[in-house]
Amino acid sequence: MDFGEFKKKNRDIEKTVKELGGLKWLYAHTYYTEEEFRNIYDRLEYDALRTKYHAETLPSIYQKVRSKDEFQKSNATKGFFSAIIGKTSLLSTR
Asked: Which of 24, 45, 69, 80 is most buried, most CB within 10 Å of its CB?
């Protein structure tokens, strides 16, 4: 499946969840625009909590969960596979 098809399927899921009155769990890919995200997940309440706990300088939840317009491997994933496959593994030094 190419990225365009993958993204479309995810957007279809987000639309269906909204139509059914649900909230998408934010552990998966999220392709909402920031405006859509703020309308679904109460921005006023969230911003009040960020202010209360002095977290305004930290990345927002939206910044953390939104997916970029491409497939990306995290540095952790790259490091994990490099350690297993490559010579950086602690196992290879024993």
From this structure: 24
Every domain of the chain and the residues it spans: 3-93
Letter for the amino acid at 15?
K
How far is it, in rounded angstroms, from Cα 46 to Cα 64? Answer: 14
The DSSP annotation for 2-36 comes to -HHHHHHHHHHHHHHHHHTT----TTS-B---HHH
pLDDT tens, 2-18? Answer: 888 989 998 999 999 99
Residue keyed to tokens 């491997």 = 73
Amino acid, res. 67? S
What CA–CA distance (Å, rounded) separates 17 from 37? 13
* DSSP code for 59: P
Mean pLDDT of the chain: 79
